[in-house]
């Protein structure tokens, strides 16, 4: 198995080989407490194998039907076929993410995945987050698209195909069909829920006289897969791992029982499936929850769902660490039993602190860790032993997170191999594309994921896999989705 972070190189390190719970500066009582914590968060080989088995069962169950008892929803993306890297054309992508609008123009040049990108970001004014009619918001979005087209220069007598990715919960019933089921991130429009997203954009773009046609809706994980696949056509899995997490992969039509007799384009045998793996473990069947995980889940704004996400992602890892540190303080094992308003504030320990603390190799003073604890969280003064303990806690939590992600990827890979998807005796292998701030910025995360993945798949499969870390892929990938939509329409026309 190879990795593209930053250059392809063979994986040779052994899983768990670098981890030790031993501390140099701690008292015996502190050492004993850290060893107990390490055992609490340990994911044994047997447990990893159970997770792989359970994940495959949930995948199969989700493909059979959209049953509420399934952890994995296995949502069809309606994107079929594979980019070759030789396609040419100009495509637009639109993304609404939180309070930001991103508009992107991608010029596909072919020649094994060459492309050129123009992108611009717009802010949504606060007064456009709520109201009676959602078309007011879409009118503003249309104005942003219009401004973007002026910036990049438009072509006469040319209608730009566009794919749209929105940060709302959407029930997608076709490549360019879907209704909003929930407005999120502070948006509140009376007629928003139940709205046909694509139709709304079409109507407002037409009213503005824009030469744009929305040809597809796009999930960000599907976009990650396709953005990488245009330049690396062997890509079969796409993963986003940042504040949230998700995975998409190619699946055979014959295995998607929920789509039987409802999809007619059989020019390709495969379709991309959005697993929604953030929800894995939510029925308490597979994941090794600790008391700290259960506390975080109870106190979250969405208890009992997205359990895998709460154990592995940037939104929550820092909070798990904070809860552990508070526990250690309350048991007189840290900071001489003293805390601070900063440490006692939920979500004050940002996950990015873990990146800095784990990378702090100054074992004589842990100066970077000291800055975070004493200047950011106003704890202090702290001892070298305190800082060493905090680093070890970050390592314990971060290591478990990466191991769970590695096990989830291994589950998808093994499932695909067992079902004859993307890897057979004649195949040279396939690529896995991964994007997300946590995955890109947490130095130890990628090696730990790959070590776990390698330990859970056979050597002959590992030798045929590569892992590519891709940046800025989501909005570019949406433009690739627009290209794929146009390609699918062309395939259907040729058949007819």
From TrEMBL:
<dbReference type="GO" id="GO:0006006">
    <property type="term" value="P:glucose metabolic process"/>
</dbReference>
<feature type="domain" description="Hexokinase C-terminal">
    <location>
        <begin position="236"/>
        <end position="484"/>
    </location>
</feature>
<dbReference type="InterPro" id="IPR022673">
    <property type="entry name" value="Hexokinase_C"/>
</dbReference>
<keyword id="KW-0808">Transferase</keyword>
<dbReference type="GO" id="GO:0006096">
    <property type="term" value="P:glycolytic process"/>
</dbReference>
<comment type="similarity">
    <text>Belongs to the hexokinase family.</text>
</comment>
<keyword id="KW-0418">Kinase</keyword>
<feature type="compositionally biased region" description="Basic and acidic residues">
    <location>
        <begin position="22"/>
        <end position="31"/>
    </location>
</feature>
<protein>
    <recommendedName>
        <fullName>Phosphotransferase</fullName>
        <ecNumber>2.7.1.-</ecNumber>
    </recommendedName>
</protein>
<dbReference type="GO" id="GO:0005536">
    <property type="term" value="F:D-glucose binding"/>
</dbReference>
<feature type="region of interest" description="Disordered">
    <location>
        <begin position="1"/>
        <end position="31"/>
    </location>
</feature>
<dbReference type="GO" id="GO:0001678">
    <property type="term" value="P:intracellular glucose homeostasis"/>
</dbReference>
<dbReference type="Pfam" id="PF00349">
    <property type="entry name" value="Hexokinase_1"/>
</dbReference>
<dbReference type="Pfam" id="PF03727">
    <property type="entry name" value="Hexokinase_2"/>
</dbReference>
<dbReference type="GO" id="GO:0004340">
    <property type="term" value="F:glucokinase activity"/>
</dbReference>
<dbReference type="GO" id="GO:0005829">
    <property type="term" value="C:cytosol"/>
</dbReference>
<keyword id="KW-0324">Glycolysis</keyword>
<dbReference type="GO" id="GO:0005524">
    <property type="term" value="F:ATP binding"/>
</dbReference>
<dbReference type="InterPro" id="IPR022672">
    <property type="entry name" value="Hexokinase_N"/>
</dbReference>
<dbReference type="InterPro" id="IPR001312">
    <property type="entry name" value="Hexokinase"/>
</dbReference>
<dbReference type="GO" id="GO:0005739">
    <property type="term" value="C:mitochondrion"/>
</dbReference>
<dbReference type="GO" id="GO:0008865">
    <property type="term" value="F:fructokinase activity"/>
</dbReference>
<keyword id="KW-0067">ATP-binding</keyword>
<feature type="domain" description="Hexokinase N-terminal">
    <location>
        <begin position="34"/>
        <end position="230"/>
    </location>
</feature>
<keyword id="KW-0547">Nucleotide-binding</keyword>
<dbReference type="InterPro" id="IPR043129">
    <property type="entry name" value="ATPase_NBD"/>
</dbReference>
């Amino acid at each position: 198995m190879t990795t593209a972070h930053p250059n392809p190189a063979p994986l040779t390190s052994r899983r768990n080989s670098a981890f030790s719970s031993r501390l140099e500066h701690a008292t015996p009582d502190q050492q004993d407490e850290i060893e107990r914590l390490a055992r609490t968060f340990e994911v044994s080989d047997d447990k990893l194998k159970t997770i792989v088995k359970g994940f495959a069962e949930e995948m199969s169950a989700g493909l059979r039907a959209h049953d509420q008892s399934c952890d994995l929803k296995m949502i069809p993306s309606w994107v079929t076929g594979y980019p070759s890297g030789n396609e040419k054309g100009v495509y637009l992508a639109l993304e609404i993410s939180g309070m930001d609008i991103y508009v992107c123009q991608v010029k596909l040049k072919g020649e094994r995945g060459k492309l050129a990108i123009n992108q611009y970001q717009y802010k949504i004014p606060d007064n456009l987050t709520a109201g009676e009619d959602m078309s007011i918001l879409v009118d503003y979005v249309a104005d942003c698209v219009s401004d973007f087209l002026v910036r990049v220069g438009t072509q006469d007598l040319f209608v730009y195909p566009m794919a749209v990715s929105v940060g709302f919960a959407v029930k997608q019933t076709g490549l360019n069909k879907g209704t909003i089921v929930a407005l999120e991130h502070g948006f509140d429009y009376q007629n928003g829920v139940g709205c046909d997203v694509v139709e709304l954009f079409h109507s407002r773009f037409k009213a503005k006289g824009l030469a744009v046609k929305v040809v597809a809706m796009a999930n960000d994980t599907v976009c990650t897969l396709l953005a990488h696949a245009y330049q690396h056509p062997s890509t079969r899995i796409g993963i986003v791992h940042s504040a949230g997490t998700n995975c998409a992969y190619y699946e055979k039509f014959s295995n998607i029982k929920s789509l039987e007799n409802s999809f007619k384009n059989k020019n390709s045998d495969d379709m991309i499936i959005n697993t929604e793996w953030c929800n894995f473990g939510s029925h308490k069947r597979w994941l090794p929850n600790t008391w700290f995980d259960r506390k975080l889940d109870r106190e979250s704004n969405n208890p009992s769902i997205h359990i895998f996400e709460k154990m592995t992602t940037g939104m929550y890892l820092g909070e798990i660490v904070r809860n552990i540190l508070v526990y250690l303080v309350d048991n007189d094992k840290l900071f001489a039993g003293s805390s601070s308003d900063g440490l006692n504030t939920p979500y004050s320990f940002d996950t990015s602190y873990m990146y800095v603390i784990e990378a702090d190799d100054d074992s004589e003073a842990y100066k970077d860790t000291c800055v975070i604890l004493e200047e950011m969280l106003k704890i202090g003064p702290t001892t070298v032993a305190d800082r060493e303990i905090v680093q070890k806690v970050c390592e314990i939590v971060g290591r478990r997170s990466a191991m769970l992600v590695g096990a989830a990827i291994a589950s998808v890979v093994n499932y695909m191999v067992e079902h004859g998807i993307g890897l057979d005796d004649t195949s040279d292998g396939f690529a896995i594309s991964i994007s997300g701030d946590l995955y890109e910025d947490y130095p130890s995360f990628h090696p730990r994921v790959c070590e776990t993945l390698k330990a859970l798949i056979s050597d002959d499969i590992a030798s045929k896999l590569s892992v590519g870390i891709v940046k800025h892929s989501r909005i570019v990938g949406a433009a690739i989705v627009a290209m794929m939509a146009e390609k699918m329409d062309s395939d259907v026309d040729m058949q007819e």
